[in-house]
Amino acid sequence: MVNSIDLDLLIVGSGLAGLRAAIQAAKTSSIIKIGVISKLQVMRSHSVSAEGGTAAVLYPEEGDSLESHAYDTVKGSDFLGDQDVIERLVREMPSEVYQLEHWGMPWSRREDGRIGQRAFGGYSFNRATFAQDKVGFYEMQTLYDTCQKFDNIEFYNEWFVTSIIHDGQKFCGITAIEMSSGNFYTIKGKALIIATGGAGRVYSFSTYALASTPDGLDMAYRAGMALKDMEFVQFHPTGILPSGILITEGARGEGGYLLNKNNERFMKKYAPSKLELASRDVVSRAMMTEINEGRGYKHETGVDCLKLDLTHLGKEVLTKKLPAIREISLKFSGIDPINEPIDVRPVCHYMMGGIHTNIDGATEIQGIWAAGEAACNSVHGANRLGANSTAECLVWGKITGDLAAKYILDGKSQPPFPLHLVATEEKRIYDGIFRGSGSANPYEVRQQLTEIMNSKAYVFRNETDLVDGLKQVRELHKKTWRHVTDKAKEYNTNFTNVMELDSMFRVAEVILLGAIKRKESRGAHARTDYPDRDDKNFMHHTLVYYDTKEPVLKTHPVTITKYQPVERKY
Amino acid sequence: MATVSVPKSSEETTTQPSTITLRIKRSNPSESTEKTFSEFQVPVQKWTTVLEAILYVKQNLDHSVGVRYSCRQASCGSCGMKINGKPALACYTKLSELGTSIVTVEPMNNFPIIRDLAVNFEQLISNHKKIKPFIVREDSEITPGTKEFIQKPEDLEKFLQFSYCIKCGLCNSACPTMATDTSFLGPQALAQAFRYTADNRDQGKDERLKIVDDSHGIWRCHFAGSCSHVCPKGVDPAMAIQLLRGYLLGFRK
Amino acid sequence: MAERLSNREGIKGMANPTRYGIERVAYWLQRLSGLGLLAYLIGHIYETSSIVNGKIAWDKMLALTQTTEGHLILTIVIGMCVFHTGNGIRVMLGHGGVGVGRPGQPEYPYKAASLNYKQRLCIWVSIALAALAMMYGYSILMGE
Amino acid sequence: MRESIIMKIHYGTALGAVVLVAVHILMRLSQKYSDSLQYQNVLANYHFLPYALMLEVVLILLSVHGFNGLRVILLELKQGATYERAINYGSIAAMAALVAYGSRTILMAGMGVS
Ligand SMILES: Cc1cc2nc3c(=O)[nH]c(=O)nc-3n(C[C@H](O)[C@H](O)[C@H](O)COP(=O)(O)OP(=O)(O)OC[C@H]3O[C@@H](n4cnc5c(N)ncnc54)[C@H](O)[C@@H]3O)c2cc1C
Ligand code: HEM
Ligand code: SF4
Ligand code: F3S
Ligand code: FES
Predict the structure, then answer these.
(1) Distances in Å between the alpha carbon of B116 and those of A79, A159, A447, A461, A483?
(2) B147 CB near a chain A CB, below 8 Å?
(3) At D18, which CATH number?
(4) Reported pTM
(5) Do A528 and B129 count as a contact with CB atoms less than 8 A apart?
(6) In terms of CATH architecture, what is C2-100+111-143?
(7) Is A236 in the active site?
(8) What is the structure's pLDDT at D62?
(9) Is residue A56 within 8 Å of residue A97, measured between CB atoms?
(10) Which residue's CA lies nearest to atom 20 of ligand 2?
């Protein structure tokens, strides 16, 4: 017998997107039952790690404009972003910042008490709204705390969702494991918002939380929804060694320099006007070129790196505006940035791609929306600008929360629940994984998989590497790692770790397939064998659908409103 | 062609790793209620954290270790546990700074154990909810054209430090009242009650004071200071609680 | 079972002051001395009640308490009383929010402002005063 | 009663006690310590009305403070509605009993026997 729970709105994932959606839905209606389901404790989602800022136009009187924010984003996206979606983002953002402020967000302030903003890569105005360098943390806290106001939001802490159930057209429910007890549940609902975040842990050197695996993407993918533009993976220029923890772009926004072995600010060669504050893909490529041409440092661990110099900013700026950077650097690398430059190297940081949605965040299945990093409404195109992601989470959290609540209130008829799918899923995870057998250590397999991704689909890519990477991933997939040695029910993270690995394989494959197919260099996807952007053949989005045999690739047009593609220079 | 070097996993690095003995307290409610220790040998380097050591065990020696973690950078609050007898974040404690060759990790006190090092947070979560941790005022929902409530940097300073709280529960684990009082609100919740009360945008002071002025509320804090002693984020709940009590005693307005 | 795994530290947690600095020791001493003083108060009231039964009863009671052990106990009571009073005043002021530091942006590595030197000084002064008072009291008691 | 009122009483009684206990102890030192405990001297104290009144006040303050302190400790040790009610009423009863017993001494010593 499967345990079953009945709710109206299910929100899977409790990052910024999930929580913003929950609040909006609860505001829209106080009678619908909302469940926020997360494999972590709700307040511990990866969003707490976001550091630098949230982009919004707050000071038009000082020269900023929605136009400018939109154009910076379009240009940042290397013209692959859907322009109607981008316009919506920039239009909705200012009020989101004020709304968060009204809910208690401790934004850093100007002397006159108004909200502070700082410079960020790729922007032509200082519009990264900040709260010290813990923006995501404070936003999560504000949303989590504001959720406590509403009695119709229920949190399901540490429930691992395994699949999405629909009848081919309409959403019906999900299956999930309550981790503390190990019980398997069906949760029925009328609408679903997928907000499971990014999947950067498919790379071994990554800024992401250890829980950022692609289970949510994979769930949607297996349920027949397309994954879009997955080949675009953002590598942030400054991951600190050896941990890969992020040093925010805010550090360069406040005036930090990148230096090579010859103590040279090499960015003046690559982006003479914006220097260190060019968009992330540009800076990361410049750094890898420096390293590949032998002008990097060797870190103690044997890894190549460059230096990020903040010493000239002085103690005051570092302790007041970048306290977390100093803390991270002191704690995890033993370096005080007040006195010494930090060792950094490009690091996997963001997935531009995700579940294919339209401008409203709606997926191809009725009653299912996706928001946040898990979704791809194409706001970031081929490269996201810093500070635009938390913004996206807020805006589409709000939009989808509102639409889903209204959809439920409309009371559309529900299809009969396809119980057989629950049985199939139960068989897949319990017979296929929990009771599976094999000899390979799944954790070693996971390490190998992520290292393949790091070496074959990193900042610079080429056909040979990518094809080889795909081959290696598929061979690795065939090994017998689908077994769980821990047989207990309670809090069996061995079991969930293996399920995460299972999803990593499918999504890694999608990333590689998309990257092989896209024979051009655009945004974060830089092919050494096709160094130029090719608008004639590749001005489109990549869609990948699941199939039991071989994934199916399709394309999807890009929406252009005002801004015609031109060459992108910083 | 661009070649990309990959950061190596810890074993292959240049510095010679030494090893420590990691003792993990185990308990699994479905098998037996007995609490026992398992011992493992773990290679360490100067920056190896306790969390990394535990994950090394989980990945290579015993997959069944139950431990909660996520961000590995002291922002999410998952990995609180007792390390060599004191509550601390595993991802924020380096083995090298402990300076012992045997490191003992146990689940946090004053929380029910789910399994091994993972504990149940229901009480912390519901106590946090009880103290109305949000801005209480009528116009907290914006309308078109709304701008921000003005908040000077010095107004911000009055509560900012208390909003550093990552809800890790270490303070509740260290507090002597929490050790025996199952109904105590606890330093985490009380500090948040002050955080919102001290915010110049908030108007919920009276409501919140009523909530904490209970037989298991703020008065069960005796300023033992242990909460602040272990807080990894500099929140200083002990200060927050005394300042909040200042309102009740009429020392503050 | 649930009870077994509740993992509350129990009275041990209240009683184990060593891990968390002097403030925790002060907390524990305040408690012990409070209880000790209460016990003494009850005893003292019982002791003095003998006065209503006339001189003989009073002298008998006095003889019972004016022993070496009695003086030792009284010395401890003096210590407890002084510490409890001194520390009690610190705690009371602290509870009112006096001398517990001001909120401000903490700097890594974090040091809690409420565990400041003023507080620590007060605790040590209370302990020192208690010790002095005990010595003085002992000398008077024994000096007879 | 609201907990804040109880605790204000707790602090108030403590503050009151500081002064009065000091007086009480200093009385022992105003003469030779052992003399201060002589039957006649003690009785004289009780006959001196202001001092007897002060003793009464000290008695009340300390009983209230002490038993409330005990109540607090017990309340933190174990929880449960019945238990807590028992503790609350128990400590009031104990306070009253101690005050009654101590007052008896003060009253009788002050009025009668000489
Ligand atoms: C280090 C770092 C710094 C960043 N800084 C910035 C910045 O300064 N500005 C900016 O705009 N952006 C920044 N970003 C990007 C931004 O933080 C993220 O894109 C954003 O937080 C994603 O939020 P989310 O709500 O989509 O998902 P997340 O916060 O990632 O949450 C995912 C949720 O899904 C849940 N989940 C996943 N799988 C399952 C499952 N199987 N079952 C149940 N639940 C599941 C998780 O428990 C979690 O609650 C940063 C990112 C990183 C890595
Ligand atoms: C004379 C000066 C005294 C002062 C200034 C004083 C002050 C205090 C203070 C501030 C507390 C702490 C309350 C808290 O932490 O919440 C306390 C507790 C206590 N006091 Fe006193 N007190 C004094 C005398 C006494 C005496 C004479 C007795 C004995 C009858 C006594 C018994 C107690 C008890 C039992 C406690 C509870 C301990 C605890 O909660 O930790 N006190 N006192
Ligand atoms: S106050 Fe400090 S110790 Fe307590 S939960 Fe918050 S961060 Fe953790
Ligand atoms: S440890 Fe506990 S007693 Fe008070 S000062 Fe902190 S809450
Ligand atoms: S893993 Fe997030 S705080 Fe340690």
Answers:
(1) 51, 18, 25, 43, 21
(2) yes
(3) 1.20.1300
(4) 0.95
(5) no
(6) Up-down Bundle (1.20)
(7) yes
(8) 97
(9) yes
(10) C34
